[in-house]
Amino acid sequence: MKRKADTYTDNKKRRLGAPLTSMTNTRYPLSFLFSSMVHRQSPLCLNNSSQGIVVTAPPQPNNASVYSISGDIYAFNNTSSSSSSIKAAATPTIKKTPIRLIENYHKQDTITQLQWNQNGTTLVSADETGKLALWNLENSVQSWSLTYEVNLRQPIAALFWLNADREYVVNRNGKDCVFTREKVLGPRNPFGYLAFIAVTVHGEISVHYQRNGAIFSSFSTTIPKTGHRDISRAETGCYGMALAELDDCRRISHASLNMDKEGNVYLAAYYSESYPKAVDLYNVKIKFPGKSDSGAIFCQPVPSLRFITAPEPTLQPITVPETAITHIVLSNSSQGIVLNIGFGAYDDSKSEYSCYFGKWIIQETTQQIPCNYFDGNSFGDDTISRKRKELKYQSGFALTERIITSVSCTRSGQLGIGLSDGSIHMEYQDRSEFGLLRYTTDDKATSLNSNFWQVVGSHSLEDGFFDPVLGITFSTCETHLIHMLSSGQVGSARLTTNEPNDDADQDTGTITTLEQSIKVSLLNQTDNLDLISELIRIGRLQGHKDVPERVVNNALLAYESFFYQDDINTLQATPGPDLKKDDEISDWNLARSRPAYGLAIGTYRYIPEKRIEFTNMIKAIQLPIILECFMGSCTSDMADITDVLDATVDSKKQLSFNPDSLWSLVSLSSWTFDYVRWILKEWNLLFNSRHPKNSELYDLSARPVHAVLLVHKESRSSLIQILMMIQHFIQYATTSNYELQHIPETKQLLLRHITTTLTSEPVPIKDILSFLQALGNIKHLQKNSNDEGNNESRWSILVSSRLPSGESLDELKKVTAEYRAKCALPAIYLETHKEYPVDVIRKKRIVPSEGHVQSCIRCRQLYLPVIPNAIDPTSFSSWFHSLTRRCVCGGLFF
């Protein structure tokens, strides 16, 4: 099945549904690309992190640049349908951000390596001159810092990060999938977090590791069979060596590093000048330095792979000297490390390119060696058994009129191959392996051979010439493929099955595997946007509408149960009601629930039928953040704050606040009162409206509503505590003696705003607190996820957004009727709730689409400040100070 990949080329954030800009024809001819791939490994110009940030450096002759791509880059297929309901959902956006710091560091030199570390916080970049640097990603893709830099003065042939974390994985054993944590495998840095291996073209292999913060150390050695380079002239670069006639060693043209499942590091190296063609393999062993000894690197040779004879008739041309090696990639598989080699050739007589590809696996065999011995009386024969490693051919293919321009592999070893015509082909996944990639039985159509299927069709430019694929990487959970073309365009394509196959096999079906993948992403705290995209796509298929809600609810319940019990076995299936809970962490912890909230919000964002659930999740996550802001601004002891916030204790203590945070607390209080007015209106409209019994609106628990925010125990408790903090804030601001340090002249304006706005709400705070506490006293609403016999998570009611039925609903109606005279005043229906930032000075909402004009109180000079898109509770103070700028006459803008 052929399909064209979705591409994006914009320089700024944009809607993915917008038309593409015109393609550029700036590119090198295919002959140049082929010559470059013969003499050196193709640059790794595209890489994706575990946090979903794609970093890329467009190939020449495009301008030398480095930029990151973030956002919902996997949601192309979700917006391609013509269904009207799909168009009503939120449109995904992407953001392309130049990384100026890396661009200025490498200047005009071609970047050959871009690789993220394991947790996606540090990026390594290296160029053709040997300059290498580590870049730490700060709070956003626009904030980077230089962690480490070194100039190896030689081009880098291969680079490999050493793992530092033990991640959770899913191992498939027949029909059963078991969640386990990775063992401590391979060399690890005992001094710090960061460590990597670098191999240069002159055969120097070095280990660079972090000792303490920005302090790094390194140790190195020379790979065998690389010549007789003068080690004493290590500071001499490639060009200096050539001028000094020291460049007498063989140059590594292609190399690859990888680690098998046993922790063994392998290096494959090829020298384009060697004849006959041979790929040398080494088992690299690393010993980090101790207290008394220095570090050491041991390169144990593995039998080389020589192309003297062809492994099969179709690959006979690889033995010809004119057929050159263009790609070398080491990949993992269930049987061990696999050596993938791509070949290319050009026939002058036919003016035609051709390519070949083969896979060899490293296996351990036992060799019997005959031995003759003399025991003193007679001679005898015997054999000695010796274990050795060898390369065994697996499969391959041959193509004409095309060449291989890019090769990449997933963590489990599936290959993605890009060709010179712009098409991309993916290897089928084995049924015995865990993952969502397409299986062999899903589609009988083949592309390169029976083991591959075509992901993206050929891609042509406006002038009719093909646009080769020069970079391939995979999404975090390997459900999508991201590629870069020679013209600089970047695109993505889905790699999963078109239809879920749970009906054929419930234990290893698509939906079950998707749910398990989501659980693993929550445990490892990695980006799961690609899984969300797949979950939304399946939910739009006929007969699978309930899949998103079911999968999200099961994943959140398992995620919460795991943290209560710290037992990985709770993730195997939905936890039962007999599981014991830990009372020490019974409080709602927003930091723990952040990944789970992100999953639910990210899923419901693009489902039009889940707009109410999406809004409820957004509101629920804001309440504990605002409570933390109030508590952080309070200068009283924590014991006093706890006593005040305890609703069961009638505390007479008074709280004090930091005067510099009072203006920020005004904005937070205004937002809280707006929220209370909105939720009371939603609640009373729901319970005080009458509908015929045959109406679909008669049953209040049959549809999602916003009123569940008052039923959700954690959200209700946070709101009660916020209102109690507001009471103490108003009392402190109006009765205490304090001075504003930064803007003392605004104290009177602050007091006037508090007395006129915050103390004149349509529903008094004491009545709201009384109503909320009455809801909390309902017997059926006091159950929590850590109550025995309750098999629901703290998020269950927000995920469904449906009120409880039966006796609980009757008690809710009863409490509502008791407080109708106090909490259903007409004033709560007069203002429409809008989520716009509030101008704390003019006491007016700021509409993002409109300009906000300020004027000086003296000379009436106008000022137009920058309008934020949303209010961040942690930056209210700085935002207010930006609004209160002084005019040239000395007056304030209002």
Explain what this protein looks like in three dimensions:
The radius of gyration is 32 Å and the shape is elongated. With 894 residues, the protein is α+β, with helices and mostly antiparallel strands. It has 4 domains: 6-494, YVTN repeat-like/Quinoprotein amine dehydrogenase (Methylamine Dehydrogenase, Chain H, 7 Propeller); 503-581, no CATH class; 608-833, no CATH class; 839-883, no CATH class. The model is unreliable at 1-24, 78-89, 228-234, 573-586, 784-790, 849-855, 857-886 and 888-894 (pLDDT under 50). It has a 5-stranded antiparallel beta sheet with strand order 2-6-5-4-3, with no helix packed on it. Strand 30 (480-485) and strand 31 form a beta hairpin. The chain contains 19 helices and 35 strands. It starts with 5 loop residues before the first strand and ends in an 11-residue tail after the last helix.
Topology:
Elements: E1 6-8, E2 14-15, H1 30-39, E3 46-48, E4 54-56, E5 67-71, H2 84-87, E6 93-98, H3 100-106, E7 111-116, E8 122-127, E9 131-137, E10 144-151, E11 156-161, E12 168-173, E13 176-181, E14 195-200, E15 204-212, E16 215-222, H4 238-243, E17 254-259, E18 265-270, E19 278-287, E20 296-306, E21 324-333, E22 336-347, E23 352-374, E24 379-400, E25 404-409, E26 415-419, E27 424-427, E28 452-456, E29 469-474, E30 480-485, E31 490-494, H5 510-524, H6 529-539, H7 547-565, H8 590-604, H9 611-633, H10 638-645, H11 662-688, H12 708-711, H13 713-735, H14 747-758, H15 765-776, H16 796-800, H17 807-818, H18 820-823, E32 838-839, E33 844-845, E34 854-855, E35 862-863, H19 876-883
Antiparallel strand pairs: 1-31, 2-6, 3-4, 4-5, 5-6, 7-8, 8-9, 9-10, 11-14, 12-13, 14-15, 15-16, 17-18, 18-19, 19-20, 21-22, 22-23, 23-24, 25-26, 26-27, 27-28, 29-30, 30-31, 32-33, 34-35
Helix pairs in contact: 5-7, 7-8, 8-9, 9-13, 11-13, 11-14, 13-15
GO biological process, one term: positive regulation of DNA-templated transcription
Subcellular location: Nucleus
Domain Mediator complex subunit Med16 N-terminal: 193-426
